[in-house]
Design brief:
Distance between the termini: 13 Å
Strand content: 15-25%
CATH architecture: 3-Layer(aba) Sandwich
Largest sheet: 7 strands, mixed
Number of strands: 7
Mean pLDDT: 95
Shape: globular
Oligomer: single chain
Order of helices and strands: EHEHEHEHEHEEH
Radius of gyration: 16 Å
Helix content: 25-40%
Length: about 200
């Protein structure tokens, strides 16, 4: 499957950059064709512009129908897969209905544990450390109408050392996130993971 990827990002866009960098290094059927941010000053927008990728600021401040505007952009660029890369808003149901089983997210824990509403960023890592877990990791999953509830596509775990705290754990997981996201996209492009 030739992937025409639309990316949603809110802040730094480090996962976006990692995906772009991996695409440049490997011969894959993946192209990032559009980046949408709800934050006009997000660094993800700057990263995409530097790469010549079409960028859009779509938020409740710019439109009264975020989903409709997202779909318009995705259709314009013939997007067939959407990846959330640090996107901090709930995806409009109209987008999920227009792109069923075609919206991916990455979560900084081993789902189904430590997911759900309010579980994002450092809150996840703090909860994992507080529970004295031996492992954590990252999960790529499909997005549905519930937070962190969709089908798990890929996971990678990391050991938690006694010396780890939420900050050091977050840094370790971010390193594997960057590779895991691309590896999962590559498996999709090679039809080694099939989306229904």
């Amino acid at each position: 499957m030739k992937i025409r990827l639309g990316i949603l990002a809110s802040h730094g866009g480090s996962n976006l950059q990692a995906i772009i960098d991996h695409i440049k290094k490997e011969d894959v059927q993946i192209e990032v064709v559009a980046v949408i941010s709800n934050n006009s000053s997000s660094f993800a927008i700057s990263r995409a512009k530097k790469e010549g990728i079409a960028t859009y600021h779509i938020s409740s401040k710019t439109t009264n129908d975020v989903g409709k505007q997202m779909i318009k952009v995705f259709k314009q660029h013939k997007v067939n897969l959407i990846a959330l890369a640090g996107y901090m808003k709930k995806i409009p149901i109209s987008v999920l209905e227009t792109y069923p089983n075609r919206v991916l997210n990455i979560h900084p824990a081993l789902l189904p544990n430590y997911g759900g509403k309010g579980m994002y960023g450092m809150k996840v890592h703090e909860a994992v450390i507080s529970a004295n877990e031996l492992y954590s990791g990252a999960t790529i999953h499909l997005v549905n109408s519930q937070y962190d509830d969709g089908r798990i596509l890929n996971q990678q775990r990391v050991a938690i050392l006694k010396s780890d705290n939420a900050t050091t754990l977050a840094a370790k997981i971010l390193l594997i996130e960057h590779k895991l996201y691309f590896d999962t996209l590559k498996l999709l492009a090679e039809d080694k993971i099939v989306l229904q």
